[in-house]
Amino acid sequence: MNLKNIISKSSMRQQKGASVFTVIFLLVIIGIVLLSALKVAPAYLDNNIMVNAMNGMIDNNDFEEMSVSEVRSALQRSLITNGIRDFDASNVVLTREGNDRYIDINYETRASLFYNIEIVVTFENRFDKN
Description:
Elements: H1 3-14, H2 20-60, H3 68-81, E1 92-97, E2 100-114, E3 117-128
Antiparallel strand pairs: 1-2, 2-3
Helix pairs in contact: 2-3
C-alpha cells in the first residue's frame, strides 16, 4: 500500500455522514414546523371563507344600506352554512373615518400546539361600506 491509499482510507473512516443526534434533531425541528402548519392552516381557511362571504355580500346585496346587525346576522348565517360555528359576531364593527364608513372584522384565533404552548393568529379585515 502506498501512502495515498492509507490517507484516503483514513479520511473515509472519519466521513460517515450525519450523526444520529443530528438526524433526530432535524426530525424534531421538521416535526414542530409541520405540526405548527397543521394547527394554523384551519384558521387561515376559516378567515378566507369569512372574507369570501363578506365579498359575496358586498357584490349581491344592498351592502351600503344594511345595518351592522344585518351584516352580522347575514355573515353568521353564511359562516354556519360553511361549518364555522365558533366565530363571535361582536367582532363585526362599523368604523367611520371622516365621510368613509367601513366594516372591520378584527379577531384572533388560538391553536394549542402542545402542553401549554399556543399559537395566536391575528386577522384584521376591512370592507368598504360606501
